[in-house]
Amino acid sequence: MRLGLTSAFTMLLAIGAAGAVQIGCSDDAAAPDDGQGGSSATSSTSSGSIGTTSSTTSATTGATTGAGGGTTSSTTAGSTTSATTGGGEGGSTGPGGEEPLGDDLPMEIPTPTNGDGEIRTETTVLKNAANGGQDVYDFNNQKIGVNNTEDCDDGEGQKTVFEVEDGVTVKNLIIAGGLPGGNGIVCKGDCTLDHVYWEDVCEDAATNSKDGATMRINSSIALHSADKIFQHNAKGGSTTIVTNSYIADFGKLWRSCGDCTANGGPRNLIIDNVRVDQVKTTVAGANQNYGDTVTITNLYVKGGYDEEDDKPKICQEYRAVTDHMGESQKLHGGASQWNTDTCRVSKSDIKSW
User: Fold this and answer.
1) Measured in whole angstroms, how far is the alpha carbon of residue 153 from the centre of its chain?
2) What's the CA gap between 231 and 11, in Å, rounded?
């Protein structure tokens, strides 16, 4: 049975006061199956069979942000049309003819409205209205990256493209692929990333970094990551929510930090109505010893889940460490876990497309 977003939010969004920003989560830069959630090397661009770029019609006025973090207010004069919705790709369905729920599940990255895109020299800070910015930034499908000098497979140190303050929503944005993708988006409080597209993830697509905060990803696409897509460093009952999205060619869709400085938890993940393809390691990696929870409903796996071989892994449990004192360890031999206190997922909610 599908878990409605309202009930999902009510279940896990009793967020405490925000604590200090989590720092120093290098996890590990080793192979993507190490359970650490280290950096991800870039792979092929989005011009292949996965996430092929298509034209998008939009009448929105994009927010403009300076490299130093200055902002200019934007207004919306119209609406953006998603490239593909619903079943997508010829209407492929799950068991019993089921299609992904909802009416806005994009399958193709829109054509950038700013041509080849813009590579900024430094991280752009998206300030909230209380700090002189605005609470909603609509980029009108501009493609933006950062002049990142650290190679994507060198562990930590990549520049963040956008740092997002508490309460900010980012809409209709394409993060440039490969090296300019850097450390993607870092949320410094509650944030919503709506119709955000990552062409080719460098280190991480987005990071939840503020204790007690909620990072929501909706109607988005993230492609090509040797390791993590979404990194979760924040503790204190913080939550990452991924809905109505398409994630392909990745090591882990979500990882709770395995060896962060002053590591702990709990960290929570909610996934609903998401399509995945080419899962190298696992959909979710959670720390059992820190009280993490993973709730998955309506997950559509390309080609289906192979129960006999346990492929792809859906939810793995780990024993994490703190302050980089060793590496976190997979529990249960690394097998997918079902209906546990940590992995709150049933096989019936894993469907094929």
Assistant:
1) 18
2) 21
